[in-house]
Input
Amino acid sequence: MRRKHCTISAARRRFLTGLGGCLSAASLGSLMPQLALLPRTAMAQSASDYRALVCVYLAGANDSFNLLVPRDSESPGSLYDSYRTARGGVFSASNPAGLALPFSELLPVRPEGSETDYGLHPSLADFSASNGGASQNHAGLHSLFQQQRLAFVCNMGPLLEPISKRDYENGAPRPPQLFSHNDQERLWHIGGGTRNDPHARFGWGGQLAKTLTGGPLANGLSPTLSVAGAAHFLIGDQLLPYQLSAEGVNLIDQYASGGAANAEGARRAVLDELLADSHDSPFMQGYADTVRRALSVGESLAGLLDGPEGQLSTVFPSGNTLADQLAIVARMIRISRDQLGARRQVYYVRFGSFDLHSGMFDTGGSLTESGHGALLTTVNQALGAFWSALGEIGAQEQVTTFTMSEFARTLSGNGNGSDHAWGGNQFVFGGAVRGGRLYGRYPRLQLDADDDTAMEWSFARGQYIPTTSVDQYGATLARWMGVTDTAALDALFPGLARFPSRDLGFMA
Output
């Protein structure tokens, strides 16, 4: 068999010698995963039918039983008393190992249909955002719940099938590597499958986008977009996410098309000639095609984001990295919907540091400005500003934002924090959300609970077995996005048929 030799074309030679390798392989390589290569399937929806999901991943495992707390009474035997006891008492200087929040500090809510009052963490209050000399008041998550724009889904987590405590002890199927950050995050991203399932190559957000759109827009923009780097959640079959930074599109420096500097224009002309060259190797040809498309998409987006349609007057809080991510998401939603003809999109942002084995509270520190409370303040202010921005661009009814996090944390403390658990609470908000309610079963918050009638099961430190699955959560969001066929939902979430409900009801 004859071996084919690669030869250097004239264009390639001029590029290498004339530019001295100014464009590194790493620069081009970083563009490789940003585009899906399938042609886009035409969609019938009009601009008014635009819909997007925005996943806010709370990395490290948010202590969500301090996010939403029973607030019925401080009397012995109340639900709040059960919570306070399981958490080792209220944190104070005299009880630094306690993990419970003070009754009086909780922001009161009465969920629709509930006979019990609850309280939200005090960090979820309304606030004023300041940035660059400008300031603006925004509603916090507490107000959004009161306005029926936000709902909680309770005691949820990865499950292979419904499972009781007795089932668990008898060896019933359960997710692999429980209490492991990496493994449980992956299960949230793929929709509750197993590591060995072929379906696990893809994320349910990516597969959802592929089902609804077929592939990228006409200009090459993927329907899945990340502002937080690589995200398994957004990968679909032959569909890869487009990655932005909080500052916008990352372009190649000193290679502007028609750049003011003569050198930039010359570099770009040679690069364009090189990318247009034909290659014997399919890999080299695919690489060149991908880089060419990435350059085209990136420059198109940069122009739109810099234009009037890409600007916002909403004030996002300064020094808030999650707010920075959500600001670019709001700008991208506007130009994608109004300028690029997008009808279905899925976004991913990320905020971390929730793995609080220590530092849940700081002695002498404010509940909202230290420890776990400081993290929730960041989340609250980022999402409150994002909600205002969606109002500015007329997209509050068209965008649904939801949280994911590996697991909740143990109800009992370890001295100054809490450890890895399983089921926890997540929230979802938007104009299409049936808010002001709790979905799923909020547990009584007891250590070592075992009540089949109430579906109340926890281990010795209060690690609750979920009673609602990630599959049900994702399927409810997928139905709102437009996937209503039973077979299509089963393809997205292969384990969905094992659960009693395919729709949790929190989307209008």
